[in-house]
Amino acid sequence: MSDYTPKPEHQFTFGLWTVGNPGADPFGSPVRNRLSPVEVVHLLAEVGAYGVNFHDNDLVPIDATPAERDRIVADFKRALADTGLVVPMATTNLFTDPVFKDGAFTSNDPKVRAYALHKTMRAIDLGVELGARMYVFWGGREGVETDAAKNPVEGLKRMREALNFLCEYVIDQGYDLRFALEAKPNEPRGDIYLPTTGHMLAFIATLDHPQMVGVNPELAHEHMAGLNFMHGVAQAWDAGKLFHIDLNDQNFCRYDQDFRFGSHNLKQAFFLVKFLEDVGYAGPRHFDSHAYRTEDIAGVKDFARGSMRSYLIFKEKAARFNADPEIQALLAEINADDGSMAVFQGAYSRDKAAALKAHPFDRAALSARGLKYERLDQLTFDLLLGVR
Ligand code: GCO
Ligand code: MN
Ligand code: MN
Potential cystine with 132: which of 29, 90, 168, 214 (Cβ 3.0-4.6 Å)? Predict the structure, then answer.
């Protein structure tokens, strides 16, 4: 029997807002008591997590006095020291307070935009004080309900100015901190700017310090947009921009469900884990999700344990896929190369182009070959469901 015990090297992390989620939704009140940050740290230690992430106001209420802030931070640091949990990532809440009803960095009100920078710099200080090396930006309300309100190019310009300013702030402070931008297509705004990981990657290239900035793709967000999450993650990886990842689950094109990782789309989750493990992604595996609203605190622990267990089961299945002789033989056959095209491959040359243009191709023979993907997919299915 395999060991699915979470270990520090797996870097499994949860947000204060995830296991601490009291289960309110737009139609119903909370169903669980709100846990204090110290209680969340102890719960996470009990279930075997490695780290805890937070928004500034998950830890320090927005109107706390400086003395209250210092006491809360001291209590939190003690809980971290007592449990050995670390804080790999921090972020800013730029969406709950009514001041952000029209966004933060992209608000039409210059005072709100300035306040968002003020709040984020203080939140960065807090995150760095607690050890964070990664800072996530999720533009929760950076968008619109009506395009009459804002020009999206203006929105992008404001977003760029804010991120350039904050990169300079980090450099000026001498902080060892990188930024990870998290895309989401909608919720809570009708439309959120930079709606997918692909949009974010293109935007990063327009910043003053692109090397400091990567992405934090979230499975649920790409599924809300009907996309293949693993493909977006792969593109981020290829660009050297996979700085962080938010794992959860979500039915396609539904409301923001935030289900437990692996709970809904087994094959998508499997191919994602296989990708991360095959390429050697070395960052945190952050579960940005929460327990069903039906659960009490014991169910919250089931949710947290289940998230990590499922990841490790998929990881084991990925290793089996890579070691399975029949699957690997099929893949070798599918990818067979007799070397006859080598003369046309690689860098362009005028002679190569001329030879390729003159080369005859037997289209009928090329298209006659069956690719055996049906068999390959069934073997994958059998492996996943434990009958192989
Ligand atoms: C959401 C987002 C958030 C962010 C968080 C960290 O759908 O609400 O996923 O949970 O990840 O704000 O930036
Ligand atoms: Mn989300
Ligand atoms: Mn997220």
Answer: 90
55 catalytic residue (yes or no):
yes
Q: Could you give the domains of the chain?
A: 8-323 (3.20.20.150), 325-384 (no CATH)
- Sequential DSSP letters for 283-322: S-EEE-----TT--HHHHHHHHHHHHHHHHHHHHHHHHHH
CA–CA dist 112, 103 (Å, integer):
8
Q: Whole-prediction pTM value?
A: 0.97
The active-site residue out of 58, 249, 258, 288 is 58
Q: Could you confirm whether 63 is annotated as catalytic?
A: no
Q: Which of 17, 135, 138, 200 to mutate to test the pocket of ligand 1 (most atoms within 8 A of CB)?
A: 138
Helix (H, G, I), strand (E, B) or coil at 266: helix
CB 251 within 8 A of CB 223: yes
Q: What is the pLDDT of residues 176-208, one digit of tens each?
A: 999 999 999 999 999 999 999 999 999 999 999
Q: Which ligand is nearest to the CA of 247?
A: 3
- Which ligand has the nearest atom to the CA of 96? 1
Q: Residues near ligand 1 with C-beta < 6 Å?
A: 55, 91, 136, 138, 182, 184, 218, 246, 256, 288
**d(C-alpha 328, C-alpha 332), whole Å:** 6
Q: In what order do the strands lie in the sheet with 89-91?
A: 213-215, 178-182, 134-138, 89-91, 51-55, 12-15, 285-287, 246-247
Q: Are strands 285-287 and 12-15 parallel, antiparallel or unpaired?
A: parallel
